[in-house]
Specification:
465 residues; alpha/beta; TIM Barrel; eight-stranded parallel β-barrel; three-stranded mixed beta sheet; 37% helix
Length: 465
């Protein structure tokens, strides 16, 4: 060994075959919103409405990935990932939401997947990542209608029957709570598309019930339509309850709180257990959604794995009240990154895994972290570099927490960083950057950030560096 050579550390090593990847979503990167037969999504309409997007921008061009996908795949290959998660745009495949299939839209994804395969990168496709057809919003109000679940299943059949020869890893729906509970507001304009005001909390819960029903129908459609053996998963961003300390009473409190934190009890619970959480139903009372006979059997489809999108969490402690727990608020000086909700809580990644295996009783269900990352106020310095030290700090701590879960024997199979490149960050427009590739939106140049090179080394060494 050379005198000043540093011996590699052996800690935080992941097992052989651990899946390292990166993730994106169609509306956030593709652009080309009017090309090759694509019709508007609810996000096209929403972002074009003045006052909805922080910087007044839309996803009309975004990262122009529709035209630059070959360049982006080369960046993936340089990064060293062998797995890439992307989403398919429903209005590109079935522009009117139902009926005629647009083969030109299907062909874009054929070209993308073929390019990935040429670089030995496995495609992992999300069938719905929020950009539903505007035509279905106009027809019956999107997720307010049970028809949406049926039309979604038909769309899934159209996609999988055409792309199933190339794609064998499918995810039905991304983050149900975001386009239902954040997309429908009770007598208020919500922050996410389609931005629909409703009159009661029951109507909001009905939208998420239609979405979990769509997930179940989608699982059935994938398995019926796929020409090859395939895997089927849901991607969920359930609210992670983290005990303030790992004492028995606080850990029990965190398990109890899981039922009523966020929308957990009406999304991840019925998907994995076949029933809404009794604690949630008691809390909702008359605001609980209407559930038809047979719905829960459809919703609880067998999964080949579960995708976890985890960025932060909620601290919980035991309390002498009726619930036996209480949620703790973050103070303004608690560390967070460049989003109002992005409190740094690495243990959330560990507890997300542990809750699925232990609290929800699925110890054998394989898990993939399908999103984890952070926004930072990135700029290009005088040397043409982006030195995003905050992101490296964030990722390093979260991956250490994930390694703990792996080390304790939980069935974590891989990690997809969010995101491959800066993109249209929904209601925040282009003001917030989550990528490890910097996107110059004027020139569409990609610049690898310091975090790109750091993650590249994690992948090369199969450990947290």
């Amino acid at each position: 060994m050379l005198e000043h050579e540093i011996a590699p550390m052996t800690s935080y090593q992941f097992p052989p075959g651990f899946m390292w990847g990166a993730a994106t979503a169609s509306y956030q990167i593709e652009g080309a919103v009017s090309e090759a037969g694509r019709q508007p999504s609810v996000w096209d309409t929403f972002s074009a409405t003045p006052g909805h997007i922080y910087d007044g921008k839309t996803g009309e061009i975004a990262c122009n990935h529709y035209h630059l996908y070959e360049t982006d795949v080369k960046w993936m290959a340089e990064l060293g990932i062998q797995h890439y998660r992307f989403s398919i745009a429903w209005p590109r495949i079935i522009p009117d939401g139902r009926g005629r299939v647009n083969e030109a839209g299907v062909d874009f994804y054929r070209r993308l997947v073929d390019c990935l395969r040429e670089h030995d990168i496995t495609p992992h496709a999300t069938l719905f990542h929020w950009d539903s057809p505007q035509a279905l919003e106009d027809r019956y109000g999107s997720w307010r209608s049970r028809e949406m679940a049926m039309d979604y299943a038909d769309y899934v059949t159209a996609v999988v029957s055409r792309l199933g020869d190339r794609i064998t890893d499918w995810m039905t729906i991304n983050e149900i709570s975001c386009f239902t509970h954040m997309g429908y507001g009770v007598e208020a304009t919500p922050p996410h598309a389609p931005g629909t005001r409703v009159r009661t909390a029951k109507e909001v819960w009905q939208t998420s019930h239609h979405a979990v029903l769509a997930h179940g129908l989608g699982c059935q459609a994938i398995r019926a339509a796929s020409p090859r053996a395939c895997t089927v998963a849901l991607v969920d961003n359930f609210a992670v309850t983290v005990p303030i300390s790992e004492s028995p009473e606080h850990m029990v409190a965190a398990q109890k709180a899981l039922h009523t934190c966020g929308s957990n009890g009406g999304i991840i619970f019925p998907v994995l257990t076949g029933a809404y959480s009794p604690a949630l139903l008691e809390q909702l009372g008359a605001d609980a959604p209407d559930i038809q006979d047979g719905d829960l059997d459809i919703i609880q489809q067998p999964l080949d794995w579960l995708g976890l999108n985890i960025y932060s969490g909620v601290y919980v402690r035991a309390a002498e009240n009726q619930q036996g727990y209480e949620f703790l608020s973050f103070r303004d000086n608690y560390p967070r990154l460049h989003m109002p909700w992005l409190w740094i809580l690495p243990e959330a990644l560990y507890w997300a895994v542990r809750h699925v295996s232990d609290s929800l009783g699925k110890p054998e269900l394989p898990l993939l972290v399908t999103e984890n990352g952070c926004a930072a106020p990135d700029v290009v310095n005088n040397q043409g570099e982006v030195i995003d030290l905050e992101r490296i700090l964030y990722l390093r701590q979260y991956l250490k927490a994930l390694h703990r879960a792996v080390d304790e024997g939980y069935p974590v199979r891989g990690y997809f960083l969010w995101s491959l490149l800066d993109n249209f960050e929904w209601a925040w427009g282009y003001d917030r950057r989550f990528g490890i590739l910097y996107t110059d939106y004027e020139t569409q140049q990609r610049i690898p950030k310091a975090s790109f090179h750091w993650y590249q080394e994690c992948i090369r060494q199969n450990r947290v560096v």
